[in-house]
Write a structure and sequence with these properties.
The protein is an alpha+beta fold. It is 31% helix and 26% strand. Strands 4, 5, 6, 7, 8, 9, 10, 11, 12 and 13 form a ten-stranded antiparallel beta sheet that branches. A two-stranded antiparallel ribbon has the order 1-2.
């Protein structure tokens, strides 16, 4: 069986043949619409439409986020971003853990709950200095005086104020509220701060400039703020109904940072101010501006 050869002349004639499409009124037989078209024009139109949609598809993929849905597209850059994000996440996690440990240790120190790390050592080889507790005496009054002297040394007042270059020589603390002091500092009675009488809804001012390192609520003293000032000085403001600063905020001396609260089991509005230096309580009254 022989294969017929394609007649290109006939094909060209067919492509150039004009076809007419008419819409005729059925009753009057009037021609309403006439459309003439060649097969060649149809092929050209289809080709142009395909080219237009191909270019449009390329533009959408190249300049819109749709390219991210193509499998394998941008895999190297995406993996690099994922690695960088994972590294940054680990760094932020480490910083967060270190900050949490710092705040926990600081709260333990301020609450007189010092946690000592366990170290594997030979206890027999360690020489322990017992200080005044190792002194043997039969005079109980003398022993009590030694204990009281040790507490005074723990308060750091004698040694600190006797130094000419002491950071406490020019220390001046502003009263957080305007009322009078009703309870003073007494380390022997575990009273590590001043209780200052205040008015209802009175604003609590910052005694010193510094950075807020902790804020929260205590069962017996309402909301509190812990502020780190210069030279390792830390002060605490307790018994607030609302704090206006959060952890990480910087406060200026005299700036309003809280609103006073009513003392529990009392009708008075009292502000409690504590001053600490290197883990030791200091009497704020010696430095406060009255």
């Amino acid at each position: 069986m022989s294969i017929k050869k394609l007649d290109w002349n006939k094909l060209k004639q067919r492509l150039k043949t004009i076809y007419r499409f008419q819409i005729v009124d059925e009753k009057t037989y009037d021609v309403k619409f006439v459309f003439e078209l060649k097969p060649l024009n149809i092929l050209i139109g289809i080709g142009l439409a395909l080219a237009f949609f191909t270019v449009l598809n390329f533009l959408f993929i190249a300049y819109t986020p749709l390219k991210q849905y193509i499998p394998g597209y941008g895999s190297s850059s995406g993996n690099r971003e994922i690695v960088n994000l994972s590294v940054k996440t680990e760094e932020l996690g480490d910083k967060l853990k270190s900050n949490e440990k710092y705040l926990v240790n600081l709260k333990n120190i301020l609450n007189d709950k010092v946690v000592v790390d366990e170290v594997k050592k030979d206890i027999k080889k360690i020489k322990i200095d017992t200080g005044i507790l190792g002194q043997k005496t039969t005079d109980e009054s003398k022993f009590v005086k030694n204990i009281e002297s040790g507490l005074q040394n723990a308060e750091l007042l004698e040694n600190i104020q006797s130094s000419k270059n002491s950071i406490f020589n020019n220390l001046s603390i502003q009263k957080p509220v305007s009322g009078k002091i009703i309870t003073g500092f007494d380390a022997t009675k575990q009273q590590f701060g001043l209780t200052i009488l205040a008015k209802k809804d009175e604003e609590v001012k910052a005694p010193l400039s510094g950075t807020v390192i902790a804020d929260g609520i205590l069962p017996n003293s309402n909301a509190y703020l812990i502020v780190q000032a210069e030279n390792q000085i830390v002060y605490i403001l307790k018994n607030n109904t609302k704090v206006l600063k959060k952890t990480g905020n910087f406060v200026q001396q005299g700036e309003t940072i809280a609103i006073i609260a009513k003392q529990q089991n009392s009708n008075n509005y009292n502000c409690i101010l504590e001053l600490w230096y290197k883990g030791q309580a200091i009497d704020p009254l010696k430095f406060i501006k009255l």
